[in-house]
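Tokens as discussed.
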């Protein structure tokens, strides 16, 4: 069953008060585009984990737990904590990680960002970036940032105080469209937790000036009318790991098949270079983790690696980029794309976790898939490769059948005979593209993204987000599988964020 990537969700956050002021337009720093990965492939990621192989694991009942009270997954034994109570805290419908390709934690994991929305009444929060203490998980405050979309903020991989985003706020009726560097400073601590921060911002580049006659993007947007937004496109990935290259697109105010059209380009902060813009539908070129080029897909026929400036096609690979996937680097520093593949192009492979080397090309590799004796990939599979300090590790979250792998999910109401058990369905796992190691670590118990439900809840999908060290994983859940023998498929269920702390986490 094909599961396409996220749909574009525009949010206006203009009601939030400013925390800092925009400084004058400044220059950018940045390391070389081909810098080595800062990952260490540290062994603590898998420390203490049990390899269950392909065996069926019991799926035991577990009531929704109180906020910030640690508990153990009854089947995998992993420590988990419910971080939010969206209804009680903010009178909102969901508090979730933004997306698996977005790093929720800053580089030293002292801060993390969740997205809060779906107000339940006029007093609820609708569109807020909640900043939490990354260690104690205490809520600090909402950040006054206006990124181009909810997942388009980018923590620095080296400086825990730095956050990047393209400002989506408005001035005199037009989008600002400035690449901004925000500096977030701890202002107060209470009972051991960060309780307040201050934020100042600096403009690194003003893209609005590039649309004017003679500007670097003027010809690319000619005849498009007023340019409303510069963004990372409909399916954004992270910036390069040296925080220097970013893939962007200028919205051309028209659609193709209901999907936004962009003038797509890349921008390198250290040199101020704007790559040659070209027309694209939905997706735009995304920075490779190494910063050596960009990754681009436009159809299910394959993905391309491009030169960041000229867009010359360096290689084409048989991977369907329209499925949920993420990029990372392996132990050798090569750029990798990994994700689920349901109907891959010729030369590709079907599976729950497939990867291919973007730097060198070569064979498509199956970690979990029919070629290795695994079932056809369950619907609702998402991948996060944001463990940039633990090279090669990815996290995977799977919806599949809410009543477990032994359940019946042919209709809108999942059923099961006997004791529910799972292999892949409803599970969170981690895997390493270098060693092939796979560890199943928890049940996320979210039911609302069930593929055969009458109404799916997008926000209930298992948007796993792995931490930079690879030792923690965020996952949203409506906890509809408190009793897997009778899962509740409720599109209006409140969705909160949970953290899975692996045994190797020492925080």
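Sequence:
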């Amino acid at each position: 069953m094909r599961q396409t990537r996220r749909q574009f969700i525009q949010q206006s956050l203009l009601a939030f008060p400013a925390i800092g002021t925009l400084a004058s337009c400044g220059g950018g720093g940045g390391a070389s585009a081909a810098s080595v990965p800062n990952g260490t492939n540290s062994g603590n990621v898998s420390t203490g984990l049990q390899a269950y192989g392909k065996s069926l694991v019991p799926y035991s009942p577990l009531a929704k737990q109180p906020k910030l009270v640690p508990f153990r997954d009854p089947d995998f034994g992993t420590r988990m904590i419910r971080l939010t109570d969206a209804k009680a805290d903010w009178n909102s419908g969901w508090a979730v990680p933004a997306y698996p390709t977005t790093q929720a934690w800053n580089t030293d994991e002292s801060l993390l960002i969740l997205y809060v929305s779906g107000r339940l009444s006029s007093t609820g929060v609708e569109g807020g970036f909640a900043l939490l203490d990354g260690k104690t998980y205490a809520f600090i405050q909402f950040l006054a940032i206006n990124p181009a979309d909810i997942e388009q903020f980018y923590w620095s991989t080296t400086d825990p105080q730095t956050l990047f985003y393209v400002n989506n706020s408005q001035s005199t009726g037009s989008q600002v469209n400035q690449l901004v560097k925000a500096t977030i400073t701890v202002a107060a601590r209470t009972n051991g937790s960060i309780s307040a921060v201050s934020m100042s911002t600096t403009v690194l580049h003003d893209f609005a000036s590039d649309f004017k006659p003679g500007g670097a993007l003027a010809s690319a947007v000619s005849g498009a009318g007023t340019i409303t937004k510069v963004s990372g496109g409909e399916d954004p990935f992270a910036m390069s790991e040296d925080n220097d290259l970013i893939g962007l697109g200028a919205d051309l105010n028209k659609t193709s098949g209901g999907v936004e059209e962009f003038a797509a380009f890349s921008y390198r902060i250290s040199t101020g270079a704007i790559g040659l813009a070209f027309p694209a539908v939905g997706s735009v070129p995304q920075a490779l983790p190494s910063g050596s080029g960009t990754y681009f897909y436009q159809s299910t026929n394959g993905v391309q690696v491009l030169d960041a400036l000229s867009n010359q096609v360096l290689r084409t690979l048989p991977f369907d980029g329209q499925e949920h996937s993420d990029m990372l680097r392996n132990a050798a520093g090569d750029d990798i794309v990994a994700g689920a593949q349901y109907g891959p192009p010729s030369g590709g492979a079907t599976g729950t976790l497939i990867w291919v080397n973007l730097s060198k090309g070569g064979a498509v590799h199956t970690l979990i898939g029919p070629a290795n004796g695994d079932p056809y990939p369950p619907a609702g599979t998402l991948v996060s490769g944001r463990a940039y300090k633990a090279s090669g590790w990815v996290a995977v979250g799977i919806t599949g059948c809410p009543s477990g792998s032994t359940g019946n999910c042919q209709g809108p109401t999942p059923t099961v005979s006997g004791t529910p058990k799972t292999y892949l369905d409803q599970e969170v796992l981690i895997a390493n593209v270098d060693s092939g190691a796979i560890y199943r670590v928890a049940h996320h118990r979210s039911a609302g993204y069930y593929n055969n439900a009458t109404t799916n809840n997008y926000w209930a999908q298992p948007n796993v987000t792995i931490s930079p060290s690879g030792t923690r994983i965020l996952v949203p859940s409506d906890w509809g599988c408190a009793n897997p023998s009778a899962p509740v498929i409720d599109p209006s269920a409140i969705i909160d964020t949970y953290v899975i702390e692996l045994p190797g986490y020492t925080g």
